Amino acid sequence: MSATDPRHIIDQSKMTAAQIAVVVITVFLNAMDGFDVLSIAFASPLVAKEWNISPLELGNLLGMELYGMAIGSIVLGGVADKIGRRPTLLGCLLVMTLGMLGATTATGALQLSIWRVLTGLGIGGVLSATNATVAEFSNAKHRAICIAIMVIGYPLGGGFGGLFASSLIATNGWHAVFYLGAAATGILIPTVYFLVPESVHWMTRQRPANALERINHSLRKLGHPTVFAMPPADTQPRKASLAEIFSPGLIGTTLLVAGAYFLHILTFYFLLKWTPKLVTDLGFAPSQGGWVLTMANFGGAAGGAIFGILTARIGLKPLTIGILLFNTISVAVFGHFATDFNLLTTASIVVGFFGNAAISGLYSIAAYAFPTHVRATGTGFVIGFGRFGSIASPAMVGYLFQNNTSLSTVCVLMCIGSLLAALVLMFLQLNTNAQRPVPAGH
After folding, report:
1. Each residue of 352-409: pLDDT tens digit?
2. What's the confidence (pLDDT) of residue 217?
3. How far apart are CA 221 and CA 203, in angstroms?
4. Of 118-122, 167-171, 298-302, 317-321, where does mean pLDDT reach its minimum?
5. Radius of gyration from C-alpha coordinates of the chain
């Protein structure tokens, strides 16, 4: 890499205030995912009562945004690699805002489902572009911890979103939570527009029109010196982004990372979706079920933060595998604390801690595993494929409970996903020592 390579400047220089601001913004972007997942869960009792819909219809409605997120992550990740991180983020935020506003106008389950899918499409695109953004705006030294910090936005959004949603819905009805989501997302549009320039890594690789001028504009905005010339162009043949992550050089990486993420999500979404119902079925008040889930999200935020600190001392891959194994144990024993509310709450915090720390590890692994020109595509495919796990997980648990499987047995069965994810990662070759992520086979 030449001395004039602008990627070298980003990777080797100290983090500036402008770069830190971009990382903070990605935390809020990721928080919208956590807020959205829990907002519909808290709104669902009033929605079901108002429209007199069956539990089956309600279950389908609760999963609508996950379908949208899966499609958005896979499809719009490729868009971010073609047109840039910044326009993709802005476009997806606009779609999210429209989807949340549209939800307030729904008069039936079908209309609300359509708006939820639209919102999910925007969120999926934001998630795939956000991971690439934080990886490319952080320096090599702090890249892993910046990604971990970004990931804690999800449980923070879920935790604080759950607290606000409960009070808002109690006083203003279920529509209020979607107005809040639309307002929060709308504020992020000018925030991204003014504070997040286009990625230097993306422009150096893709070479859009006036690339040198645009790169120097981003460097100046980030507080770094400009360059006088472009580095040598990559002469390797280009494929369509989605096709390239399945090329001979990357297909192994794609399948291993996506498989590990999918398997962990099967475990992760078990308690994320079922905790309020489980706590209520155990004889506690519905409000206590919401409290347990909220505390699990705050435990998840702590797990993401601690993971970021540990990455400076422990290798990314072995740390993630170890956390997945701890999550396996914590989920397996969760059902044994069913009779004591305080112990149940503590157990949920521990599960949230390890579950979200593992998510941080898998996000970081995705950022290192895929090269710049397909980073958003690869990350988007991993996240999108994982969303199908989040759809399958609640259904699997529902089937087990319908067949009178005990809670302790369900916990043991559902923890297997994280265990298998740890085993899958053992086969992944990952280079985290290079100045910037380098793809296998390149």
Report:
1. 999 999 999 998 899 889 887 888 889 889 988 988 888 888 888 888 888 889 999 9
2. 96
3. 15
4. 167-171
5. 21
**What DSSP character marks residue 282?**
T
Higher pLDDT, 275 or 408: 408
Rounded CA separation 6/359 (Å): 30
Q: Please say whether the beta carbons of 289 and 302 come within 8 A.
A: no
Whole-Å CA distances, 78 to 44, 129, 429: 33, 9, 24
Tokens of 331: 């989920």
Q: In 3-state terms, what secondary structure has residue 250?
A: coil
Measured N-to-C along each axis, helices 286-310 and 153-172 cross at an angle, to the nearest 10 degrees, of: 160
Average pLDDT over residues 22-45: 85
Domain ranges for the chain: 11-196+240-425
Handedness of CA 375, 377, 380, 382 (dihedral sign): negative
How far is 412 from 409, CA to CA, in rounded Å? 5
Name the packing angle between helices 375-402 and 64-83 (round to 10°).
Answer: 170
Q: Spell 355-372 as b/e; 16+ CB within 10 A means b.
A: bbbbbbbbbbbbbbbbbb
Residue 389 CA to residue 270 CA, distance in Å, equals 10
Buried b (16+ CB within 10 A) or exposed e, 183-197: ebbbebbebbeeebb
pLDDT, position 373? 81
Give the model's pLDDT for residue 402: 80
Percent of the chain at pLDDT exceeding 90: 51
Distances (CA, A) of 281 to 6, 10, 275: 57, 52, 10
Calculate the average pLDDT of the chain.
Answer: 87
Which residues are CB-contacts of 325 (< 8 A; sequence separation ≥ 6)? 418, 419, 422
Q: Which of 26, 49, 65, 423 is nearest to 273 (CA)?
A: 65
Query: CATH number of the domain at 11-196+240-425, out of 1.20.1250.20, 3.40.1080.10, 1.10.8.60, 3.90.640.10?
Result: 1.20.1250.20
pTM summary value: 0.79
Residue showing tokens 């504009």: 217
Which residue reads 């020592």 in tokens?
Answer: 433
Label residues 211-236 b or e (16+ Cβ within 10 Å = b). bbebbbbbbebbebeebeebbeeeee
